[in-house]
Amino acid sequence: MQRQSSFKYEGQKLASWYFTVAVILFGVQLVLGLVSAIQFIYPSFLYDILDFSIARMIHINALVVWMVYAMIGAVYYLLPDETGIEVVGIGIAKLLFWILTLAVTVVVLVYIFIQIGPGKESTIWLITEGREYIEAPRWADIGIVVVVLGFLVNTFLTTMKGRRTGIMTVILSDMIALAGLYLAGMFFTDNISMDQYWWWWVIHLWVEATWEVMVGALAAYGLIKVVGANREIVEMWLWIEVAMLFGSGILGLGHHYFWIGTPEYWWEIGALFSSLEPLPLVGMFIHVLYDWGKEKGIKTGTGEDTSSNNTPALMWLVSNGFGNFLGAGIWGFFHTLPQVNIYTHGTQFTAAHGHLAFFGAYATILIAMFYIAVQGKYGIKKTKSHICFQNGDIPHNFRGFRNDCGTYYCRI
Ligand code: HEM
Ligand code: HEM
Ligand SMILES: [Fe+2]
Q1: Over 60: is that where the pLDDT of 397 sits?
Q2: What is the number of the ligand closest to the CA of 357?
């Protein structure tokens, strides 16, 4: 039987579309990651059909694109919830979704069908710009800018019209910075040092500044949703993180300027400020666990139900606190001093950090948002990480346990 969607707002329905494409691209990312890994072991695997350079490129571009989709989805999901009103201009917002999705499909097909050829001006416009992680050709870049501008206008107008919360204020200002930075990776220069200089503005200032702030806002929203955390407490932490991450994250950019031909003062700036970067990550980690424990404690005293209403989402939220701290904070700190980086630069050490950080800091929290959306879509009161059967419909071959509320479950 087809279950009816329980979304109260069209904005949340649109969010579920964004989430669906995000999940599909996540799948594409994993498959191409496996292909590139196999090619490390058997270099002739799919040779001339899907070369390592292309498989790896789609692997990491799909990564960035699915995360951007999931972030836009997350904003559309919480926007009506936070502001208390429908997304302004929802019709245009839906149209923009289809334009973006069509453009992404065309870009990926072009990557797959035109794998080799001369590097001309037309290549930059039509095939790829060749900038790692954000390789979309210029026509698509311009399209992305238009779609994102539309998204920003929708979000801005909705926030101004509806209830204004701290979470929405942070997200809105963060999205403006995040979108603005994309422009730094769009213009062409034939000097590779200059190209890298600007390219890091997008990559580093996304993952270590603007995306991290986004994570803070999503964690705040997620904690309120799944464990009923106190808004004042999570929002206070959010503001602290915004201040700290923007401070250390922006100058921490210097840790990518050690060996690309930029002036030597970047050694000191990069070393000092990027070493401070793990601090807000520690704060975020403690924040997730402490807030939850505290709220639970307060409620235990009152006899209220202290369990989470969405165990999978909560587990992913907690793994976000831990994964962000480990993958970005600890692993990042390992190689952020020039004295260490001179040996680890561009080695598997970097790739391992890239995997752990992207997964720990972003995949986890976005997966938590998927679970929150699934819960919202089907109006589930309590989403659990184990399969529950009501007494009446237990399959007769079922081997499980009975818990104290009379429900059967097979595993926790
Ligand atoms: C969630 C946050 C983060 C993500 C997603 C992330 C991801 C990445 C990725 C993918 C690379 C490789 C880039 C390339 O292709 O060249 C990289 C490089 C690097 N990251 Fe991070 N990172 C994060 C946070 C941090 C933090 C907090 C630090 C330091 C405390 C750090 C230090 C570094 C350094 C030093 C490099 C350069 C490695 C080299 O020279 O080969 N990262 N990061
Ligand atoms: C099935 C699982 C996966 C496999 C087998 C896999 C495999 C690979 C391989 C072989 C590369 C190329 C490494 C190189 O050029 O030396 C790579 C790069 C990368 N992958 Fe994955 N991957 C997987 C999942 C993921 C996930 C889940 C994420 C993030 C959420 C991710 C993020 C990255 C990043 C950021 C890079 C570039 C790292 C760098 O060059 O520094 N991968 N992956
Ligand atoms: Fe960085």
Answers
A1: no
A2: 1
Residue nearest ligand 1's atom 23 by CA: 328
What residue owns the CA closest to ligand 1's atom 28? 332
What average pLDDT is seen over the chain?
89
What residue ranges do the domains of the chain occupy?
A: 1-137, 165-380, 383-412
**pLDDT tens digit string along 210-221?**
999 999 999 999
Separation of 379 CA from ligand 1 center, angstroms?
A: 39
Report CA(341)–ligand 1 centroid distance (Å): 11
Instruction: Assess whether the C-beta atom of 274 lies below 6 angstroms from ligand 1.
Output: yes
- Percent of all residues in the chain with a pLDDT value above 70, rounded to a whole number: 91
**pLDDT over 80 at 298, yes or no:** no
List pLDDT tens digits, range 147-171.
999 999 999 999 999 999 999 999 9
Burial profile 198-220: b = 16 or more Cβ within 10 angstroms, e = fewer:
ebbbbbbbbbbbbbbbbbbbbbb
pTM over 0.90: yes
59 touches ligand 2 (CB under 6 Å): yes
Determine the pLDDT at residue 411. Answer: 41
User: Which ligand has an atom closest to residue 208 CA?
Assistant: 1
Q: How many Cβ atoms from other residues are within 10 Å of residue 232's Cβ?
A: 9
* pLDDT reading at 204 higher than 60: yes
CA-based nearest residue to 174, from 139, 199, 210, 209:
210
Task: Give 1's pLDDT tier (boundaries 50, 70, 90).
Answer: very low
Architecture, CATH, for domain 165-380: Up-down Bundle (1.20)
Residues 361, 212 contacting (CB under 8 angstroms): yes
Rounded-to-10 torsion of CA 189, 194, 198, 203: 110
Q: Please, which residues bridge with residue 310 across strands?
A: 383
> Which residue's C-alpha comes closest to atom 4 of ligand 1?
357
> Ligand 3: distance of its center to the CA of 357 in Å?
11
Q: How far is the centre of ligand 1, averaged over its atoms, from the C-alpha of 258 (Å)?
A: 13
Q: Which of 173, 170, 180 is nearest to 221 (CA)?
A: 170
Q: Residue 162 is which amino acid?
A: G
Residue 41 predicted with pLDDT over 70: yes
Give nearest CA residue, ligand 1 atom 21: 332
> Is residue 287 pLDDT above 80, yes or no?
no
For the Cβ of 346 lying below 6 angstroms from any atom of ligand 1, the answer is yes
Residue whose Cα lies nearest atom 9 of ligand 1: it is 354
